[in-house]
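Reviewer 2 asked us to include a model.

Predict the structure of this chain.
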Amino acid sequence: MRVEQAVYGEVSGRGHGLRASSTDAPIAATIASKLDLPDVVPIGVQTWSPFVRGFPIDEHYVLARTFLDSSASRGGMVLTHALIISLNDMCEVSSLAMLFGRLAPSVTDCPGSMVTLELNTLDSSHEPAADLIGTANALTAQELAPVVRLSAGGFEHLVDSLWRNLWPALRRTFAFRLSFGPNDIVEQPLPALVCTPEQLQARWTKHRIVKPGDKTPESEIARVLCGLRDLRPILALAAELGLEVHTLKELAKLERLHTLLSDRVSFDNLLTAMRLTDGLSSQPTLGAGIKDKIIGRFTALIPGIGCKQLLPMRNLALTGFANTALLWSAVELRVSNLNFAPVDDSDLTEMAAASVDEDLAFPSWRAAVTAGLSTAARRDNPAIFQAIWRWAENSQAAFDAVIDFLPADAAVEQRLTKEVPRKLHVTNHAPLLSSLLKKRWLTAYGALLASTLPPLDAAAQQLKVDRDPDQSAGLRSALRYASPSQALECALKYTDLRLVELCAGLAATYPEILSNIRCENITEQKVWGAAISKSSSLWNAPSNAICARDTVLAQLVEGRHVETGLLEALAHTPLADLSAVPERARLWSSLPISQREYYLQATAIGWLNVAVRESVITPPEAPLECAIIASLSLKSVLEKSSVTVAARVSIISLLPSFLEDVFISWLSNLLKNVRTLSHTDSEQLGSLVASRRWERAAKNLSERFADHRPDLMPGLRLCADLLNFYTRWMLGISKPSDREKWDEFEKEACELYPRGPDSDELWSRAGGKNADLPGQPQNGATRWHTALNSIRYGGRPTARELLKVMCNDFPVNEKLRLYIRDVDIIGRR
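Predicted model (structure tokens):
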């Protein structure tokens, strides 16, 4: 090893400077000022000379011994013998003893001429300095540099003992010297160790003083400096991480890391090891192998940890690790599988709040936690949602955070809503509502209102933000704890159609909520109408349903706005029968066209039912009559044997548009089923036929009478004028006069022999003389009138003779047979 020498001291005219050197290199002159006394020797201090010093400068290391130069021209001057060595060579020197031995032991021994030395740096045995342990403890205490040793005596031995246990990288910066107080510590690098006269101890109150009496190293690093612990494994770990250890602080961290990795595998140890590794080696490309091993071991522990252990991971930057994806995936999975038990709420709320705060946690941890909580929320597991509502009571920050990052998924909102407690204990729910509103989770919003406010207030608050008429889940949620009657109260107060629908649904289960409905306002009408639409049986839910209906109908007739939905719903219920409504006749034109027919049909049936029961009934107005006529019930009523004939006839009598054909068909069935009509019933039938001028019906009656139904005679007599002469005469319904008989006989003769009595020689064949007949210029009717007048007053032929020939000509003519038997025509024999 090449070693240069130099001597420094008083130089004439210049003070302290370079006197002689074995090298012309600038370094020899450069360090002159550094080899003077550090400061003026304090008064009264004498025990300081000689002393050794060592320090690196540029690529050299200077080792020197300084003496008080009593021969100098002025006091306080020093003489220094220095060795200048390559820094790289010096770092490989394991002991300073040989180099200290090359330094002048006294002022008088300082060489006059300087030569370059070539030295062999073989190690030698060595007894550690007595105060090495105290010095090691002081150096590793991580306090203000430098460490102070009292007295310069034995300082060389101590430095040599310490140097032997240092490693090359630390030797490059290790400096030591004499110091008279902290004020003279100004150079860089700062000396790690100084010696000072004992009288000056008071100056070093802020510095660590070496305790010579220390017998035990206070740390593992102190053990290293004492040579009691093998340094090589630590340096090997550093090399594996691509590091050089330049300071005791770095060595302490590496020793701690080595210990953590060597001890039993635990979460806390590995977490600390990762932090240390990340702090020591921030380059991902350096030490990738050991880093991957550390993070792999740590990742394997994640499935078994709880939220208390997840929290300390929030400030894991891991910028020095290249492969962290699996770790954060494991954290995400672990968070998603947490139990979310109440006992963990304190940690869970802290974790949730930190997951969205960049000042509280690093991005990777935040992303893993939020993703894990989101995954948990997507599962059908109520625990997380129960926890969220507990957090709402204890930590608004946690609630706001988790609501903000939960998936904007309807299923997630439904699960959250389902778990809202019946009573949520919060002093101010407004911030919680704000978070839900920001998410547009109006169903959960309503559930929160329901848990903190009375139903009426909850509905009012919900309606302020929930305005979409097609979405009712939020309002239903706000009224989830409302009684049916409270829900109806809300509907009537706020008149929102969604509340109307809600009450309609409730009425299906709790019909009693409609008992006080009077339909005086439109909302009541809407509620009742919607309820009937859901369950038709609710038409009778109001305690006085008929009165409620009539209130609506009265408003309709007055031209006021009414709920058409109720009218449509009632149209399919028994209340559609308006037969007893006073203003019925005015209603038909007011009712919605689409529903009018239903009301008419129902009213037709009702009117018929009343007609069956009561003897006096109001005639139907035209629209209703049409409905009655078209109703299948009419035929049923008219054919029902349990209904009296009088009632049936009365019904027909009140229906002016009742068709004669239908009546004849009905009459046929009636007479088939009723063998004998009472005198009154028969007359009622006859009166009806007579009033309607139903000739065919009268004829049908007469034919029935002829078929052995004498009970029809009272009726036939009332409608006799609708029957022809022959029917009345033949059936004895009425007795015609002689004049009427001769008139009808004349009509029949004109019909059979239109040209007159001599047609086909009728008159002569009957024994008369054609010459007695009027002449041809007269028409047949006139000639017949003259001829029959002649017979009537005794002329020939006689009526009998004439009729006999006529009967021969028309053997099936019933009228001729009737005349030939009548004494008023043919006379008596």
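Residues 230-304 form one domain. The radius of gyration is 65 Å. We have added this to the supplementary material.
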